[in-house]
Amino acid sequence: MSEVKLVVCHECDLICQEKTLAVGEAASCPRCRAKLFQHRGSTLEQTLAMAFTTVILFLIMNTFPLMALHLQQNTRETSLLGAALAMWDREMPVLCVLVILTTIVAPAMQIGIEIYVLSRLKWGKQLKTTGLPMVILQKLRPWSMVEVFMLGLLVSLVKLKDLADIIVGPAFWSCSGLIVVSAYMGTMLTPHNVWNWFQQRKSDVQV
Ligand SMILES: [Zn+2]
């Protein structure tokens, strides 16, 4: 007898029977039309490779200068943390803490959990420990706001370009790359995909 897979709609709690989709197809709830999941054809290995890419981009973003200002023979460069700490010096401690939390702490935790979940699925001996990290990851994602910081930075670059020469640093480009790769990761590392990889790994272990 073939096993019937069920999926619960996250919007209206309707229990639906899961259908096998072709790559690129998406399934939606028959009652509220919410998108249930999409088959992107991404494998665990591809997602793991993307996760390690985010680690490299994150390290570059936090190690190298973000930008440098050249004005009257003086060049002053700043890093992501330096930009946040400058707000503390200008008596904006709340903003400073918010920037550090949303651009350094939350993304670092997000990347760490993603690597943990994927490594567990790929190499872990105990497969039951990915449920709670996935819940934390789903709650953490809205707090990671590197793209909001980047938008603010772009606005300041436009405003400053007439006053000083601006040299864009490696951290700027890695920050841009991180936004793109993280957005793509969000579509690959979904609870539905994790569950499928978990089932696949479980059947591989049992064989
Ligand atoms: Zn629904």
UniProtKB/TrEMBL annotation:
The chain crosses the membrane at residues 48-72, 92-119, 140-160, 166-185. It comes from the Bacteria. InterPro entries: PqiA-like. Pfam families: PqiA. The keyword Signal does not apply. The keyword Membrane applies. Keywords: Membrane, Transmembrane, Transmembrane helix. This is Paraquat-inducible protein A.
